[in-house]
Amino acid sequence: MTVTTMLGLAALPGLAPESRPAVRPGDVRPGVLHLGLGAFHRAHQAVYTENAVAASGGDWGIVGVAPRSREVLDQLRAQDRLYSVLTVGGEGGDHARAVGILSDLGHVAGDPYGVLAAIADPGIRIVSLTVTEKAYRLGPDGKLLLDDDLRAQLTGQAPPTSIPALLARALLVREAPLTVLCCDNLQGNGPRIRGMVTQALEVAGAALPDHVEFPATMVDRIVPATSADHLRRAAAALGAADRVPVVAEPFHQWVIEDRFPGGRPDWAAAGAIMTTDVAPWETLKLRALNSVHSACAYLGALAGCEMIAEALELPGMGTVLRRFLAEDIAPTFEPPAGVTVRDYGETALQRFANRDLGHRTIQVAMDGTQKLPHRLLGTIADRRRAGAVPVWGALVLAGWMRFARGYADDGSALSLDDPLAGRIREVLAGAPDTPDGLVGALLGLTEVFPPELAGDTGLRAELVRWSGELARHGAAATVAAAAQ
Ligand code: CS2
């Protein structure tokens, strides 16, 4: 079937009732400004917010701001700011629903001062962010990575195109209460962003005002990059062609620390968990889901698996991941009441096995230097402090190290998409291409490994052991043998 109708306001009456948006673009006045208009936001917070407004009302339309690329903005404008979410792998098959909560659009690269003014506008009461770990410009110690460019942005000598500069400079002029809601996978995301903004404001010559809050939050939904196949399936399920659909699994979860001085949408009505303590949820998700995802990504990519679901099917992979969860991860924290790491981990594995998602190993593998400190290194450090050798955590880290060399086990190239790719290539070029050389060189990246781990000889020996196995036998055989 070829779908010829394009998604837009005019197409809405023709959509099946369950595919129509719960609110129409422009019907709701803006109250949230979201930085990072990628697929994840559009499939997660935007849907929760639309459902909350549909259930309980409120001026909580979202101003969607893209940091760099303007392509998605042009496409959304051509569709009256409508897009659809295609849910795949659920019981009823593909399901598509249009979303109309975007009340306006903005572009940091094209109009940084316009975005600054919008953040300072008292009508906006929440600034939320999904800009990925690296955009916060924080080192492993939580210190702002200040270079000349960022200093110039913070002191007003250059346009505010970075996240620290946009937030800090808007707060210099803003008087109304504001909540900054970081929805990225960072351990302690609320306090961490608070620290970042405080440091950025100091450089700008000001102190953090007391009418701004930084609640912590845990966001969860697997949202892979949209493929050509997804585009076709979205059009078929929606009954209209969408240039920018997002694809997602049926599962979604949002846990939010309830501190919003300027008010908030009724997200609880949309299924979010509002709480006073997000930390146990955040640790659970980063350690028992994201690190396991990274395990599939690095070991899978080395073994030649294009997709996460394929990596999960490697002989022995399920056993290795379950032992990683039970022996290394579970002993390091107390999960939220009523949840066990074992059950949570099993659900995560089932979610990763969703083949319809077409989630590529290379997508999860990107930005390892930014992701691993939050999802894996805490587990490893906690186990070392307890006097244990985190055997499986070390295998995952060794998998990343081998992946960072840039080759799969069959010799084909693996692209290293990481803000520290240049540094990685530099340290590897200066080291012998041996397990010991690889581990020593990468542990020396002070931007990633705290001294406690970099200087840990027991950990290093375990990493060298696994790197040797991976070099000699490849990831598939290493995983299969380890599962015995
Ligand atoms: C993934 C996450 O790409 C990655 O690093 O582990 O994006 C993961 O899909 C989400 O956090 C799930 O909520």
Structural topology:
Elements: E1 30-35, H1 39-43, H2 45-56, E2 61-66, H3 71-78, E3 83-87, E4 95-99, E5 102-107, H4 112-120, E6 126-129, H5 148-154, H6 163-173, E7 178-182, H7 189-203, E8 212-213, E9 217-220, H8 228-238, E10 246-248, E11 253-257, E12 273-275, H9 279-302, H10 308-312, H11 317-329, H12 341-352, H13 361-365, H14 368-385, H15 391-404, H16 421-429, H17 435-443, H18 451-454, H19 457-482
Parallel strand pairs: 1-2, 1-6, 2-5, 3-10, 6-7, 7-8, 11-12
Antiparallel strand pairs: 3-4, 9-11
Bound molecules: D-mannonic acid.
What ligands does this structure carry? D-mannonic acid
What structural class results from the helix and strand content? alpha/beta
The strand line-up of the biggest sheet is: 5-2-1-6-7-8
The value of Rg in angstroms is: 23 Å
CATH superfamily of the largest domain: NAD(P)-binding Rossmann-like Domain
Write the CATH fold name of the largest domain: Rossmann fold
Kindly describe this structure.
The protein is α/β, with parallel strands linked by helices and 484 residues long. The protein folds into two domains: 9-275, 3-Layer(aba) Sandwich (Rossmann fold), CATH 3.40.50; 279-482, N-(1-d-carboxylethyl)-l-norvaline Dehydrogenase, domain 2, CATH 1.10.1040. Helix content is 45%, strand content 11%. It contains 19 helices and twelve strands. It has helices at residues 39-43, 45-56, 71-78, 112-120, 148-154, 163-173, 189-203, 228-238, 279-302, 308-312, 317-329, 341-352, 361-365, 368-385, 391-404, 421-429, 435-443, 451-454, 457-482; strands at 30-35, 61-66, 83-87, 95-99, 102-107, 126-129, 178-182, 212-213, 217-220, 246-248, 253-257, 273-275. The strands form three sheets. The protein has a six-stranded parallel β-sheet, with helices on both faces. A three-stranded mixed β-sheet has the order 4-3-10, sandwiched between helices. A three-stranded mixed β-sheet has the order 9-11-12, with helices on one face. Strand 7, helix 7 and strand 8 form a beta-alpha-beta unit. Helix 4 packs across helix 6, helix 9 (279-302) crosses helix 15 (391-404) and helix 14 (368-385) runs antiparallel to helix 15. The longest helix has 26 residues, at 457-482. It is globular. The relative contact order is 0.11. The model has no long low-confidence stretch (mean pLDDT 97). Bound molecules: D-mannonic acid. D-mannonic acid is lined by residues 185, 220-222, 290, 293, 363-364, 371. Residues 185, 220-222, 290, 293, 363-364, 371 line the site of D-mannonic acid.
